[in-house]
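User: structure tokens for this one?
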Amino acid sequence: MSIIIGIDPGSRITGYGIIAAEGRGWRYIDSGCIRMNTEQALPDRVKTIFNCLSELIAQWQPTQASVEQVFLSNNADSALKLGQARGAALAALVSQNIPVAEYSARQIKLAVVGTGAAEKTQVQHMVMQLLKLDKAPQADAADGLAAAICHAHASANLARMDLLSLRRGRGR
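Assistant:
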């Protein structure tokens, strides 16, 4: 069993989701949003992201992580703030030696919904269905869960390809 934390970084709201990947299935563990005080200076918000994720890592002991990549923005200031939030998330993960996979928003939506152009409500709905949740998680938390599901799906596919390769005598 792998415990996977998925992170949707943001300078105002960082969503996270934690799942257990068990065989071909996934089990919901936790999810939520780290909400920053927008009155705070950016360095303080970055510290909040790092500290909150560090606490989650200590609590749930994830063995793998998935972080949404930064998308290109027309607003350079927003892109820089997002990059710093993402950097805080990456630092919290790698400081605990957790392997990190990175996926674009399009890849995550494609893995969870079946289309890379899915709306947030579609992602919420599919996360709810895939994890058998009673209610839809908050949008940013659903994005964190979707990142974790995307990685679980990709990891399972890579493991199957490795197994097929070994069976055909093409092992590493």
